[in-house]
Amino acid sequence: MIRLTWCLKNGLMTIRLIETKSIMRNAMIVALLGLFMPDATAQTCVDSTLINPLAICPFIWAPVCGCNGETYSNDCVAENMGGMTSWVEGECTGTNSDCMDLGGIDFGACDMVMGIALINGSCSFLSGCGWEVDEVDYSVYAFETVESCVFSCDSQDCTDLAYTEMNMGCNDVWDPVCGCDGETYSNACYALFLGGATSWTPGECEGGGDCIDPSLADPTIDCNIFNPFPVCGCDSLTHFNECVVTYVDWVSSYTEGACPEDCFDAERVQEDFPCQEIAAPVCGCDSVTYDNPCEAWYIGGLAQWTPGPCDTSELDEMNESIPLVRAVPNPTTGSFVLFGVDANQTWVVFNTMGAKVAEGVGPNVDAHLESGWYVIQVEGFRSTSVVVY
């Protein structure tokens, strides 16, 4: 397991997207593709008004690669002779290693996902009507994965935690890399989306970078997956128990108990998991009582709980006649509907840390929440919890 791309070149787009389907499964990310569409004022590569044949440019060789894929002797020549609106230092190689920022290019207002490119300084999905604009083919600046784009074009700083917030899915393939942060990751995908490392080298780090150790794998050991005793691995992730963390997840060191601040994780939820019908109630970190720890882990998606049922507050005892609000999430938008709530009733949504994340009025909670567990308080109802997948 271990936790924690985007492609395309002309007619090979469908094949490339299949290769990176682990990313495309995140519907919330796909829904945000519209954010990367250029606006109506986007510039073109060539601006004829910039061309000035009378301009005096220095006779020096300081090559730049114009956005049209042609090499100019220096930036003065690129602008005054070629009318270039953008360029990058160095000669054109005819490949995406030129790292041309395509944020100012108008590819048209189409919803077609074309691939991954450097957009306004960050590696992102690019959508539009096609790669050719003003007879310039920009497909040479496309990347097959976000990792390759970041490694080539967005690695000025060692880490960029914005990538860790994308909730991307990575393949559990052991192809270790040593991140610029000195940590060993199972592959480049995990380096970027788990650690936020923007550059890495092949192989494990020397000295101290041995958190993930594939030699620990032992298929002859059958771990108990019905009775969770969470541990926090050196990878800063909560694992099911000591057996799983060692022989299944290959984590070399860990401490007892879930990792700090880890309450809910949608990846733990398996609503059809056959937990044994054992009456050993626990109070989850979501303030909900579960029949046993197995249900807290698989049904609730929780990592922390305390023995015994949750205490019923005096307020709830006094207001048992007040209805419990029913919230039904929309899995594709991160929003949900409150049944029985009229247009004038107010609501507030809190995350697992108790912070207010949204508030509004009426039955439609159009908050576009990320996957996670939330508590919702509605005027005239008892509070309830809701999980957004």
Describe the SSE topology:
Elements: H1 13-19, H2 21-24, H3 27-31, E1 64-66, E2 71-72, H4 75-80, E3 87-89, E4 112-119, E5 122-128, E6 132-133, E7 136-137, H5 146-153, E8 177-179, E9 184-185, H6 188-193, E10 200-202, E11 231-233, E12 238-239, H7 242-248, E13 254-256, E14 282-284, E15 289-290, H8 293-298, E16 305-307, H9 314-318, E17 326-330, E18 335-339, E19 346-350, E20 356-361, E21 364-365, E22 372-378, E23 384-388
Antiparallel strand pairs: 1-2, 1-3, 4-5, 6-7, 8-9, 8-10, 11-12, 11-13, 14-15, 14-16, 17-18, 18-21, 19-20, 19-22, 22-23
Structure overview:
- With 389 residues, this protein is of the alpha+beta class.
- It folds into five domains: 5-153, no CATH class; 161-202, Wheat Germ Agglutinin (Isolectin 2), domain 1 (2-Layer Sandwich); 214-256, no CATH class; 266-307, no CATH class; 322-388, Immunoglobulin-like (Sandwich).
- Helix content is 14%, strand content 22%.
- The chain contains nine helices and 23 strands.
- Strands 20-19-22-23 form a four-stranded antiparallel sheet, with no helix packed on it. A three-stranded antiparallel sheet has the order 2-1-3. A three-stranded antiparallel sheet has the order 9-8-10.
- Strand 1 (64-66) and strand 2 form a beta hairpin.
- The longest helix has 8 residues, at 146-153.
- The protein is flat, with a radius of gyration of 26 Å.
- It starts with 12 loop residues before the first helix and ends with a strand.
- Residues 1-42 and 313-319 have low confidence and may be disordered.
